[in-house]
């Protein structure tokens, strides 16, 4: 199980989708090999110990909790609505 050697497990609100989680990780410049929800935790696999330590510093508090879910969802809805207005 090579890809599970180094991982971060922040608390996780169940309504986050994998797509939204990957979008948030990209926004925070968090490098990962895979993402997997496990019960009430989010398993974020990384390549090595150095990247694991960098990502732990970049993940501020509980960004995958209920409050942040609604903030991120509202932000994504705003951006998609705005991009639709620009295309028209």
UniProtKB/TrEMBL annotation:
It comes from the Eukaryota. This is Uncharacterized protein.
């Amino acid at each position: 199980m090579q890809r599970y050697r180094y991982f971060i497990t922040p608390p996780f609100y169940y309504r986050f989708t994998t797509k939204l989680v990957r979008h948030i990780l990209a926004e925070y410049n968090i490098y990962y090999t895979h993402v997997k929800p496990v019960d009430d935790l989010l398993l974020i696999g990384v390549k090595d110990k150095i990247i694991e330590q960098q990502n732990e510093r970049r993940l501020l508090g509980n960004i995958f909790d209920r409050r942040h879910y609604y903030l991120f969802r509202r932000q994504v809805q705003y951006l998609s609505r705005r991009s639709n207005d620009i295309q028209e």
